[in-house]
Design brief:
The chain has 367 residues and is mainly alpha-helical. It is 83% helix and 0% strand. The protein has 15 helices and no strands.
Length: 367
Amino acid sequence: MNPQPNLPRTVLGVLFIGGLIAASFWILRPFLPATIWATTIVVATWPLMLRVQAWLWGRRSLAVLVMTLLLLVVFFVPLLIAIDSIVQNAEVISGWGKSLASVAIPSPPDWVGRVPLVGRKVAAAWQQFAASGPEELTSRIAPYQQQATRWMLAQIGGAGVRVVEFVLTVIVAAVLYSSGENATAAVRRFARRLAGPQGDAAVTLAGQAIRGVALGVVVTALVQSVLGGIGVAIAGVPFAVVLTAIMFLLSIVQIGPLPVLLICVGWLYWNGETGWAIALLVWSVLVDRINTVLLPILVRRGVDLSLVLVFVGVVGGLIAFGLIGIFVGPVVLAVSYKLLGAWASHEADGDAKPVDAPGVIAANAES
């Protein structure tokens, strides 16, 4: 005779364990962003770390030191260059604000009104701004200028917190680099204990999804922003480093560098540099098209996923979780997609022999 289950004891046990888990996450909450970032960076760059270790006579400590210094350089060097560029051009920035009072907007060309559908409305709005005069233009821009100033001050005020988070990220990344195999083994043991072979396959797929996004999205964004920044610098547009950073962020969120490059083209044309404006326009189109060629190749090298799934994961993850969502979104969608596909691949007839779901996931993860 089987004993009757003790329902109150089971409920209290589950509540106690859930409370411990919630309290643990609450205590570790300040360290979670740095830990997630460090894990993402280490998983994405683990093959590179192994190559560095092979070059350094198999010494893990030297490889960890090199990778840690590389992370520091990747963060601080662009930051220092951007700050130096802003400081050196502080007078130019303040001069732009003062020059608004003397800006005279010309009347729209005749061809603007002949543009189908929107030409008349654009020409009317342009003419209204041209007739309003610099004073009204300055009064309309003033509220947005104040909002932009407050936003910049808020970002500067939070810079210290960002630096502390980055230092924690580097420290955690160094620890994971030094003992990555042990950490991976622990995560896979937990996944197998939780969901059996399917959990182990899901961990492998998550790592491949992170590398696929890092190779595809991040590397493509880096190539596009660097090439765009080179074109901007050669054309003589000021703040090339800052504009390159903006292009990188826009490329990460799948908008691309084209909006920034088109603004630079307009600035060159406004200042009478027609030749440079045309050359930068051609270069902008070429740089923007790199995404369609390079992104699919690099993503496929990391994981066999649909580009639509990667795009939705990047954009949706960014909106839901912030910058770290660029990696979290594709990972969640990739694991869910593969697990759902494995579950759907089973035979509908319960008496039929089911398909080996873990084998399907593992095969897809290895391809």
